[in-house]
Amino acid sequence: MAATNDSYRADEPDWQRGKQRPRAFAPLNPNKQDPHQRQKLRGIIFDVDGTLCLPQNYMFKEMRAALNISRSVDILDHIHDLSDVPDSTSSNAESQSSINPSAPSEEVLSHSTLTPAPAPTSPRARAVAKIRNIERTAMTSQRPQPGLQQLMAYLSSRGIPKALCTRNFPAPVHHLLDKFLDGEVFEPIITRDSEGIAPKPSPEGLWSIAHAWGLDKDIDASGADLQQSGTVDVDPLNLAKRYLGSGLIMVGDSIDDMTAGRRAGAATVLLANDENEHLAEHECTDLSIRRLDELIDVLEKGFQARK
């Protein structure tokens, strides 16, 4: 049911009147007035590979070759679908020889906390070990994106919370932070190993971050009130989660990043390069930049998604 004319106030922003909340934020510059009365930016979530560091896309070819899957198959979905049942005793020796013996015991790549960790000799565990070894090798050649330190220092100076949501496992993430962003705070950090959280393009990671930041406490309307605010046939929980994500920006370089951001209700920023620039016109992309520090001027003046 749409809002009635009786509830309209000319001096009230559209998003406070219950209409679709815009993907727009007030200027971070405290000296700049905002005649549009845009909402306050509550935090920014970053992808890691290809976003904080330069792309290492060769990894994906190596991973697919190691797993013997085609480009059309999602790597994490493939691993999740593999059996976590231990091999028979007779095949244990052969199975172990295919895994780097120096690799630590592997954790489950799971969408549910109810799924037990796979045995070290299961098909899933061997697949996990293969791609982790590829990631460990690649992380030694990580290089920071241009403008990385400048943007992070700016966000810290403006008091904007920062978090990470990545399909990587934790080791490459912490390697990058320790090497290039020592002292910068990113909390929480959601990786593919975060239990009970489906990886992007699922929006669950973004919602989890918003919850950790306490943004759910800002939702003071009931589900029924939210439905009456202009959205029809929408589950109240999903609607609340979209309101939960609407104070956020997701910055990434892939369709998974843009899709996760849009599904969560967040604004999206594509860090474009020669290989992904076609995503700048994708329906899930709100803004495209070529350098991370380009975002500083955007945020200072006020973020506005393209129409």
Automatic annotation (TrEMBL):
Domain of life: Eukaryota
A family per Pfam: Hydrolase
Regions of compositional bias (Basic and acidic residues) in chain numbering: 8-17
Region called Disordered, residue ranges: 1-38, 85-125
Biased composition (Polar residues): 86-103
Protein name: Phosphoglycolate phosphatase
Protein species of origin: Exophiala aquamarina CBS 119918
